[in-house]
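FORM 7B: Structural annotation worksheet

SECTION A. Query
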Amino acid sequence: MSTMTQYGNAGLLERLTSSTAFAVLLGTAATVLAPVILYFFTLYAQCLLLGVVLARVVAWEALGLLLLPIGGMVGYLGLFRARQPATSTIDYWVTITCLGVGLVTAVTVIAGLLYLDFDYRVLLGSIAALSLPIVAALGRIERLRRLRIAARTTIG
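SECTION B. Predicted structure
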């Protein structure tokens, strides 16, 4: 089996994440998560700014909570960037980094939700909504790696 044949075919995760049904599920999850990300970003940005102005100190808990919505935004940016193949090495690594930040953010939020005492229905719905971007990011990383390896083998 040649290298081109091996990397020319999409893997199972990539095929799953490129299906129409998965795109609809991911769009639904993004519709639910985007307002939450924006709400917490504006809320914590205001609290952080108010804390800096009034107390002249940065509350580290508020800063940590501010980084979660920023990480979510960076993750969505990575999902959008991964739709097209990378044009350069820097473009590839920026996209992979954005997807990695989004993955870490989603896993951190899931771990935080598991730590809190929520109703199990809210917890399962939240985990399901946060798991879809994780699976999408992993599928896009797989696609980018396959395209990069295929491009390297045709050039070299």
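SECTION C. Observations
The chain is about 85% helix and 0% strand. Confidence is low (pLDDT under 50) at residues 1-5.

SECTION D. Sign-off
Analyst initials: ____
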